[in-house]
Design goal:
alpha+beta; six-stranded mixed sheet
């Protein structure tokens, strides 16, 4: 994208939004992590991101999905892409999400951060 890179946000059936602001990519990424209870950072066409979204939807959570452009900054405390953050804390990739789910910690954690009702 023009203008020094962009972040495309995909959430619950909403159109793709491009966020190009005056803030540095690192600041923008940090802000998005803080402002959203469940965030997945991905690259376009990432199949593991699709799997993560399906699992989260199956338990009733609808993450904010952010597609990073190739030139975007590295994610904080994340080993790679896709990267999941819940309540501002890094979970990791698909392995981290599956680990939370299999231990029975996923739904309670999503409730704790307000991503699930009830």
């Amino acid at each position: 994208m023009e203008g020094g890179g962009g972040v495309r946000c995909l959430s619950r059936g909403a159109p793709v939004l491009t966020i190009d602001g005056g803030e540095a990519p690192e600041e923008r990424i940090g802000r998005l992590i803080r402002e959203n209870p469940v965030v997945i950072f991905s690259r376009k066409g990432c199949c593991m991101c699709h799997v993560m979204r399906r699992l989260l939807a199956a338990v009733g959570a609808h993450p904010t999905v952010i597609e990073l452009e190739e030139e975007e900054a590295e994610l904080p405390e994340a080993a790679g892409i896709p990267a999941l953050f819940v309540g501002g804390a890094p979970v990791g990739g698909i392995e981290g999400l599956m680990g939370l789910h299999l231990r029975g910690d996923l739904v309670p954690r999503l409730r704790e951060v307000g991503a699930l009702c009830g």
